[in-house]
């Protein structure tokens, strides 16, 4: 006969174990809920802090537009969205044939995106270089082909051929650095310049950037100055450039979009440094070579002053200070966007209606507030922890023992071989102003390049040697 077993006693340990597992499971759930709750509260508090900072910045921008906009007003939608409005009765004479409408009297902007984009330009390289093409995955095969008008193909299947086209204007590494100059004047071509005498003021800047065929001579000296350091040029200006330069061998030419036969023929006959603008700007709030010049200036200069941009009320046609009027850019759209940029601390506007009043820019947001707003917008967009290289999609490195060739080709004339490239491409690091050297150290020897358009998260980043001569 089998001994009797108490079934209840035998099941008790299993039941207790089951209850313990259930209790532990619910404890984990409760802990997870509490953690999520407190994390949510922390994130909520963080967002509140960022939104408070951006709202403070928006209010400062609104006051700046009211004080400096010559009739423009800013209307806050939320901590990022802002609308600029022209006063009632503004004469909207510019007709958009594509959409069959006249220019609107209000424009909508995302200030968070705008400050992220333009503050990024302060740290960027805007000249096409060999290191960028080497680092970008499709740099030589695809991207380089887009910059060569005479290639006759949509890709560089023959890299040697593409290099021959680009060698004339392709430095190994950036010839210009962020913070290289303290003040820069970007001089447009508007006929409004003839209403002012900004010449001496323009020439007092560390560097002056001009556009296309703009003449620089004694005839216009009191209006536009005589200093000439950089010139952004498009294809149509290539044939006349030798005459326009008029013996100015130091002036650096920056080709706006693509290189082609006309440019290459011109380049071989002059000693001036010539480079190719790296970025392609899409969907910008204002168009034209002037906007490119501002991007170029911001990548090299602490303070960017603009002259000769038609930004005063009453604009009815596009005029140039050296030629007859002609149809041009949308006046209201451009005026609104340039005013926004001034109140974001990107540029400082000089115009006939501003020439007679004290220009102290105390009503423009301070650099401290701009930096705080930029950091807040960055955290809201990407979260924390990504640092200054959070937008780097592609990384490359430069061999510290290889400095790369000076721009040019083997068949250069003696004039070209003895050009002024060395002034920029073999510039000793120690000769840069302290702010530029400090910035180089802060960026850990990394050059930032945009890949395409207005996207923020699409940078190619190239790390250089930490040696001082890098």
From TrEMBL:
Any single GO CC term annotated in Swiss-Prot or TrEMBL for this entry: Golgi membrane
GO biological process: pollen germination; pollen tube growth
Recorded topology in the membrane: Single-pass type II membrane protein
Coiled coil: none
Compartments reported by the entry: Golgi apparatus membrane
InterPro entries from the UniProt entry: Glyco_trans_29, GT29-like_sf, SIA1/STLP5
Keywords recorded for this protein, A-Z: Glycoprotein, Glycosyltransferase, Golgi apparatus, Membrane, Signal-anchor, Transferase, Transmembrane, Transmembrane helix
Protein family per UniProt: Belongs to the glycosyltransferase 29 family.
UniProt name for this protein: Sialyltransferase-like protein
Species for this entry: Jatropha curcas
């Amino acid at each position: 006969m089998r001994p009797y077993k108490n079934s209840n006693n035998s099941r008790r340990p299993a039941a207790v174990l089951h209850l313990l597992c259930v209790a532990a499971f619910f404890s984990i759930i409760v802990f997870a809920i509490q953690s999520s709750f407190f994390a949510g509260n922390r994130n909520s508090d963080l967002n509140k802090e960022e939104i408070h900072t951006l709202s403070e910045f928006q209010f400062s921008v609104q006051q700046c537009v009211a004080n400096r906009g010559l009739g423009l007003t800013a209307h806050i939608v939320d901590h990022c969205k802002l609308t600029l409005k022209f006063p009632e009765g503004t004469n909207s004479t510019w007709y958009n044939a594509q959409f069959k409408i006249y220019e609107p009297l209000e424009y909508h902007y995302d200030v968070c995106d705008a400050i992220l984009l333009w503050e990024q330009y302060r740290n960027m390289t805007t000249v096409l270089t060999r290191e960028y093409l080497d680092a970008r995955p499709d740099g030589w095969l695809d991207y380089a082909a887009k910059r060569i008008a005479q290639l006759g193909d949509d890709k560089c299947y023959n890299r040697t051929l593409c290099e021959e086209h680009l060698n004339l204007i392709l430095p190994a590494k950036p010839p210009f650095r962020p913070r290289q100059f303290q003040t820069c004047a970007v001089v447009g071509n508007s006929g409004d310049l003839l209403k002012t005498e900004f010449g001496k003021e323009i020439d007092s800047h560390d560097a002056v950037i001009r556009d296309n065929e703009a003449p620089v001579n004694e005839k216009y000296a009191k209006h536009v100055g005589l200093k000439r350091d950089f010139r952004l040029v498009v294809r149509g200006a290539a044939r006349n450039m030798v005459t326009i330069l008029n013996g100015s061998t130091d002036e650096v030419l920056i080709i706006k979009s693509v290189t082609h036969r006309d440019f290459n023929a011109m380049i071989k006959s002059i000693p001036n440094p010539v480079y190719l603008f790296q970025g392609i700007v899409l969907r910008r709030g204002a168009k034209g070579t002037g906007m490119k010049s501002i991007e170029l200036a911001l990548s090299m200069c602490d303070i960017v002053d603009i002259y000769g941009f038609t930004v005063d009320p009453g604009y009815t046609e596009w005029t140039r200070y050296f030629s007859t009027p002609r149809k041009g850019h949308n006046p209201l759209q451009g005026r609104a966007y340039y005013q926004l940029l001034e109140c974001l601390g990107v540029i400082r506007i000089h115009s006939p209606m501003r020439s007679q009043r004290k220009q102290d820019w105390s009503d423009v947001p301070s650099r401290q507030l701009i930096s705080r707003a930029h950091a807040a917008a960055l955290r809201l967009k990407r979260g924390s922890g990504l640092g200054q290289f959070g937008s780097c999609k592609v990384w490359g490195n430069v061999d510290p023992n290889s400095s790369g060739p000076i721009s040019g080709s083997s068949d250069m004339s003696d004039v070209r071989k003895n050009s002024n490239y060395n002034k920029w491409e073999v510039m000793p690091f120690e000769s840069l102003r302290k702010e530029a050297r400090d910035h180089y150290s802060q960026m850990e020897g990394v050059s930032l390049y945009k890949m395409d358009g207005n996207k923020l998260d699409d940078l190619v980043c190239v790390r250089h040697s930490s040696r001082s001569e890098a």
